[in-house]
Amino acid sequence: DEPPPELGFTYGEQANVSDVQISADGSTLASVSTYEGTKNIMTIVLWDVRRNKLVRIIGGLKGRQSLLNVVFSPDGNTLLTGVLDGTLRAWSVENGNQLQVFQEHTDFVTGVVYSPNGDSVASIDADGNIVVRRADNFDIRWQGKDGRSLSSLAYTPDGMTVLTGGTSRKV
């Protein structure tokens, strides 16, 4: 079998892409990338998939503020990013403005995911913290600690349970 074709989205000297997500309607691609070959400056680069064009560059965070991951809200209007400094940040897709910074995590945010019905969002960190928020206003619904470094998470299809995985080799 032939490998699928590359989309060919490149900007400057993006040396490293740490995460890629596509909006639910398939129109916008977001990548967390090293910008213009400058080490330790991380950005979110938004691409128009249909036109194969750069839409905007968001962020420009440095050092301990380096972005690790990105996820679109179900409506495609907001991006959430996990950051090395332990913050979770909300960004406007429309204008690139940072909307909010959440500081409940105690180590770098290793994962962010929306529930299947889009009414909540969960985030985890390398210190074992789990935070579940309402998606509409980001109020905390539940917060706990697993006691191990967490690196992956997912919701069950019914959206009632958050599954996590990490260094304990258990789910």
Summarize the entry for a quick read.
With 171 residues, the chain is an all-beta fold.
Shape field: globular
Q: Give the strand content.
A: over 45%
Order of helices and strands: EEEEEEEEEEEEEE
Give the termini separation: 34 Å
- Count of discrete alpha- or pi-helical segments spanning 4 or more residues: 0
* Count of DSSP strands: 14
- Supply Rg: 16 Å
- What structural class do helix, strand and pairing data support? mainly beta
Mean pLDDT across the residues is 83
Poorly predicted runs: none
What spatial order of strands do you see in the largest sheet?
A: 1-2-3-4
* Main sheet: strands, sense, barrel: 4 strands, antiparallel
The helical percent reads under 10%
